[in-house]
Structure formats: structure tokens, C-alpha cells
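Please fill in the sequence for the structure shown.

STRUCTURE ENCODING:
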């Protein structure tokens, strides 16, 4: 019997000289991923995503974008227990140019889309990055 776990996070991007870049974090096991973490107490998913961006990326000046939330799931073993985790990802725009590495990760990098999609380790978050990129392209077209 698997234990159910829920996490939330954000695909964080910034605009650098007209170019969109995404923040990737390298986890201790070596996966490149987005800021995310477990829901605490009675937090809403958006609250968890906001807290995790602040904790894992050291960024305070950002905004979650309305209209996008996708999820992926995976199963893993921890201390002899099977855990089925569902991760909900939002999109967030950073108004800060830099991020700070937390103790939870080994590295961080801002990457353009082509680099990011080739760097993200797992299929689930990579597919959601593709959807997020398309969503942002459509938003920009609507604003033009």
C-alpha cells in the first residue's frame, strides 16, 4: 500500500534582455528540477508553491500567473515505504535577476528554453515545462 504525498512548486522564469530564462535547481541526488516541496498543514497548493520558491530559490519578488496548473506523479521508496507523490506546478514570473542556492540543492542555473528542456531530468516536469513555455508564448501574443 503506497502512502500518498502532495507537493507543489513553480516553473520560475525571468526576462533577461528580451529573452525568457527558467530557473533550474540541482537536487542532492542529481536531478535538475523546479523549486517544489511538500504541502505543510492546511496550506493551499499556491501557498506551498510560493513558500518553496522563497525557501529554495531565495526569491521574494515574484508573482504566480493565473490560469496555469499542471501536475505529474511518480512512485519512490523511502525507508521501506512506497510513496506515491503528486507534484502540482504553477508558473511564476521573477522580478529579481538572481537566485540564491539553498542547502537543499547542489546547484542552480537560469537556462533559456532549449537548454532548460534538455536539462530537466524527469519526463513529467519536462512535459510541463513544454506546456508552460507554450502558455507563456500565447500570453505574450495576447499582449502584443
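FILLED IN BY: designer on duty
SEQUENCE:
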Amino acid at each position: 500500500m503506497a502512502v500518498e504525498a502532495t507537493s507543489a512548486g513553480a516553473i520560475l522564469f525571468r526576462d533577461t534582455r528580451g529573452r525568457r530564462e527558467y530557473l533550474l535547481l540541482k537536487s542532492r541526488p542529481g536531478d535538475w528540477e523546479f523549486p517544489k516541496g511538500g504541502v505543510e498543514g492546511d496550506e493551499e497548493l499556491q501557498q506551498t508553491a510560493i513558500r518553496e520558491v522563497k525557501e529554495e530559490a531565495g526569491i521574494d519578488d515574484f508573482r504566480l500567473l493565473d490560469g496555469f496548473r499542471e501536475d505529474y506523479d511518480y512512485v519512490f521508496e523511502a525507508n521501506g515505504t512506497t510513496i506515491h507523490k503528486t507534484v502540482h506546478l504553477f508558473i511564476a514570473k521573477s522580478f529579481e535577476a538572481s537566485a540564491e542556492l539553498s542547502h537543499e540543492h547542489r546547484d542552480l542555473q537560469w537556462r533559456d528554453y532549449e537548454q532548460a528542456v534538455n536539462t530537466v531530468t524527469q519526463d513529467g516536469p519536462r512535459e510541463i515545462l513544454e506546456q508552460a513555455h507554450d502558455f507563456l508564448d500565447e500570453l505574450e501574443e495576447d499582449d502584443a
